[in-house]
TrEMBL record:
GO cellular component terms, semicolon-separated: cytosol
Protein name: beta-glucosidase
InterPro entries: GH, GH_1_N_CS, Glyco_hydro_1, Glyco_hydro_1_AS
Highest taxon in the source lineage: Bacteria
SUPFAM superfamilies recorded: (Trans)glycosidases (SSF51445)
Active site: E382
Pfam short name (any one): Glyco_hydro_1
Length: 485
């Protein structure tokens, strides 16, 4: 039941949860899977906190039916998961039936439980064999991706309605090839822009081919931010915010939704080369037309707003502000030509990763996508927070209770910000909590917990947290209960 003070979403709004293959599956060398760049990178000394890797993770590969039953108990309308390229086409070679079968069983299990499957074709696990040939700085990788995407579509296209090509290509390109925080850990300046171009080219080729095969709902997921100057009265900070917007949001939004690179990108990257060539040398005739293919949906992942200062600040921290004990490997800022950035704290509340919590930024971002980009229907494909959960023993003396009011309010606040955007005329059609389960948080390993469901990594027991119980009610009623107190 909803009361008059509840915040109600449109009746077709999807409430879901999201995961990614390498973060939950485990079974790293089973049924023909071969290494991805994350299997390699997680073994580089200092690259990942506690040297954690995804060999076992949440053991989802062996516990899939149990996990789908859990989703059903949480009333989820949809489940967003990613397909591991190195399972489906190991070493980017021939299709591997055992790998395909796993995802086929997952899709059937979801449909049998009334949950809509939402596929992401790439959530960062590039076959290592392709990185050995240059990875995303090699144009051929885009063609190999499209080939892999066809294999997946041919196996699942009859049952999966929603298809996203890439998750957060910004991370793959700029954390992977400029900053080195993520696999493959390269720190090669403008190579990030070239990787971004090839990722978008792969997206365009794939949209074209899946469209021809009959796909009806195609899109891409971008991690976007609101870039505000740390001090709006300080010209250096205003310019830093402009460059952050350019190299975080516009470098993807403009080609994909407008068919051109932002004009400011050329002057900004003047004189930067990779293997003796500029990034423009990698853009071939016809690429932008492919990249600009019409889409039925845009996925937006939003975690935090960002306010750079364009000058050294004593209280500055790394690019997302994290002060937690870090991987020891030296990294660079992930935007070429932005080494003057610092990210001083604004006094906003922060998550366990020290990310600044700014729900109103999401409303601004969404209205911008409508006004400036005339964006296709939007789905929030990830939003959530890592906090230090404190498991307690339940009244029965054995069960676990995780009363994560901080995560619950984080999700509540962002759902309200989305509701505000809908009221302002933005076409937002769904929300996926990140994440269904505590899982492998990339360079931060297993210490950072994003799940609405707790995972005990010794026993693999799953325990829904307070946020999950609350979210299950939101999904059931389609409304946010009036704030308490
Ligand atoms: C996203 N950064 O990752 C991913 O899509 C998820 O796989 C991940 O678990 C989630 O957000 C939470 O981090 C990001 O350093 C990881 O800018 C790092 C960054 C951004 C996104």
């Amino acid at each position: 039941m909803t009361s008059p003070n509840d915040t109600t979403f449109p009746s077709t709004f999807l409430f879901g949860a999201a995961t990614a293959a390498y973060q939950i599956e485990g079974a790293a060398d089973e049924d023909g899977r071969t290494p991805s760049i994350w299997d390699t990178f997680s073994r580089v000394p200092g690259a990942v906190l506690d040297a954690d890797n995804g060999d076992v993770a949440c053991d989802h590969y062996h516990r899939m039916p149990e996990d789908v039953a859990l989703m059903r108990s949480l009333n989820l309308d949809a489940y967003r998961f990613s397909i591991a390229w190195p399972r489906v086409r190991p070493d980017a070679g021939a299709p591997n039936q055992k790998g395909i079968d796993f995802y086929s069983r997952l899709v059937d299990e979801l449909l049998g439980n009334g949950i809509t499957p939402w596929v992401t074709l790439y959530h960062w696990d590039l076959p290592q064999a392709l990185e050995d040939l240059g990875g995303w700085t090699n144009r051929d990788t885009a063609h190999r991706f499209a080939e892999y995407a066809n294999t997946v579509y041919d196996a699942l296209g009859d049952r999966v309605p929603y298809w996203t090509t890439f998750n957060e290509p910004w991370c793959s390109a700029f954390l992977g090839y400029t900053g080195g925080q993520h696999a493959p850990g390269r720190q090669e300046g403008v190579a990030g822009v070239i990787a971004a171009h090839h990722l978008m080219l792969a997206h365009g080729l794939t949209v074209d081919q899946l469209r021809e095969r009959g796909a009806k709902q195609l899109g891409i997921t971008l991690n976007l931010t609101v870039a505000d100057p740390y001090d709006a009265a300080e010209p250096a900070d205003v310019d830093a915010a402009r460059r952050l917007d350019l190299l975080w949001n516009r470098v993807f939004l403009d080609p994909i939704l407008k068919g051109r690179y932002p004009e400011e990108l050329a002057p900004h990257t003047e004189g930067m080369t990779f293997e003796g060539k500029t990034w423009q040398d990698y853009v071939h005739e016809g690429d932008l037309a492919l990249i600009n293919a019409p889409l039925e949906m845009l996925g937006v992942n939003y975690y935090h707003g960002d306010a750079p200062a364009g000058r050294p600040m004593p209280s500055g921290t790394d690019f997302l502000g994290s002060r937690i004990e870090h991987p020891s490997r030296p990294t660079r800022l992930p935007w070429p030509g932005c080494d003057d950035f610092t990210f001083p704290r604004r006094g906003l509340p922060e998550t366990g990763l020290d990310w600044e919590i700014q729900p109103e930024g999401l409303t601004r971002l969404l209205t911008r996508l409508k006004d400036e980009y005339d964006a296709p229907p939007i789905y929030i494909t990830e939003n959530g927070a890592a906090f230090d959960d404190v498991p307690q023993t339940g009244a029965d003396g054995s069960s676990l209770v995780i009363d994560d009011q901080d995560r619950l309010s984080f999700i509540d606040g962002h759902l309200r910000a989305i509701h505000d955007a809908i009221e302002q005329g933005v076409d937002v059609r769904g929300y996926f909590a990140w994440s269904l389960l505590d899982n492998y948080e990339w360079a931060y390993g297993y210490r950072q917990r994003f799940g609405i469901v707790h995972v005990d990594y010794d026993t693999q027991v799953r325990t829904p947290k307070a946020s999950a119980e609350w979210y299950a009610e939101v999904a059931r009623t389609g409304a946010l209960p009036a704030p308490r107190g």
